[in-house]
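Need residues for this backbone.
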């Protein structure tokens, strides 16, 4: 087990010897460690602490999702061009067994290198039999490498961190279109809303509740000041699901009309420190629906049906929780793409 402890800290390795060294490592360990991998999971970041942060993050994520981890920490503005590499492994005891299941990790520090170098380094170290998931941390600084898109199966990003979401999404759309890629877009900001969306949809499952949707007059959403893009995505989802059309857009207020609404619907956003989305209030012609985030639960209730109240799970709130949710669910995110068309206009 001493080798496992050594590689957990990261062993410096020459670029040309990475795959050979990994093969030798697993042969050395025999039955003590079992290598497992379902996907290539690459993470690109230009943050100064990217390698340390993402290594710790992958230690959590690989508890649930075995993969070949490829960390790409870049400093494109460095004066001297240099590439460094390390190999390590994330090992976890599976179930009640005694053997450890391990996901191997290859980490690169790319200094003074351009997109082509990043692409070549990534492609040279993929497990070729597995799909490629790429998580891009931070904003895009220009059109993304067209050749890169042809290899990526799922592209993870977080629109919640963007200060110019409309502009960033335009870069992403144009890059994908130029490459003629069928890549699946996986927005962690959309994943933040999964339990909220499920809770709201579930509360309108009953015929008497669904009938109320036609009499919605106002929707009020309270969100954390740092997560306005998240609140807007929720608005876009509600509007698209109910067939509303945008008629007016202000900074924190929108007006919609639609065949499923008896009149104009006013949507108000309010920034208050708290959870991503701490409250959703829907006012009808008669009565209201309220959702409040309290601890680990979402509390849902009706003003005119006092006996109908539910506590539903709020889900995890860490970055690892979001990524684990995304990796577990799959799919092409058709509902997200529909909501995104409207969200881009609301963000604009």
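Answer:
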């Amino acid at each position: 087990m001493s080798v496992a402890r050594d590689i957990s800290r990261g062993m410096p390795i020459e670029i040309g010897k990475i795959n050979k060294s990994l093969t030798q490592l697993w042969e050395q360990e025999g039955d003590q460690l079992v290598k497992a991998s379902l996907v290539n999971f690459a993470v690109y970041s230009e943050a100064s602490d990217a390698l340390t942060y993402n290594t710790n993050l992958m230690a959590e994520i690989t508890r649930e999702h075995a993969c070949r981890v490829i960390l790409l920490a870049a400093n494109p503005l460095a004066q001297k061009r240099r590439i460094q590499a390390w190999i390590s492994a994330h090992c976890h005891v599976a179930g009640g067994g005694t053997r450890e299941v391990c996901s191997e990790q290859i980490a690169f520090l790319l200094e003074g290198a351009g997109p082509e170098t990043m692409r070549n380094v990534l492609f040279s170290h993929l497990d070729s039999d597995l799909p490629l998931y790429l998580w891009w941390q931070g904003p895009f600084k220009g059109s993304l490498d067209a050749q890169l898109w042809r290899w990526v199966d799922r592209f993870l990003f977080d629109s919640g961190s963007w200060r110019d979401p409309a502009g960033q999404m335009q870069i992403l759309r144009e890059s994908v279109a130029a490459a003629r890629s069928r890549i699946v877009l996986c927005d962690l900001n959309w994943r933040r809303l999964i339990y909220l969306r499920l809770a709201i949809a579930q509360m309108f499952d009953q015929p008497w509740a669904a009938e109320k949707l036609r009499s919605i007059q106002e929707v009020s959403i309270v969100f954390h000041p740092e997560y306005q893009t998240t609140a807007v995505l929720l608005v876009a989802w509600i509007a698209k699901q109910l067939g509303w059309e945008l008629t007016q857009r202000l900074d924190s207020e929108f007006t919609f009309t639609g065949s499923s609404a008896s009149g104009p619907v006013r949507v108000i956003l309010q920034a208050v420190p708290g959870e991503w989305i701490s409250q959703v209030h829907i006012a009808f012609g008669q009565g209201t629906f309220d959702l409040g985030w309290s601890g680990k639960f979402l509390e849902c209730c009706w003003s005119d049906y006092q006996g109908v109240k539910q506590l539903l799970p709020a889900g995890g709130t860490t970055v690892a929780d979001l990524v684990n949710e995304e990796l577990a669910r799959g799919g092409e995110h058709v509902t997200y793409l529909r909501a995104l068309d409207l969200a881009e206009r609301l963000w604009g």
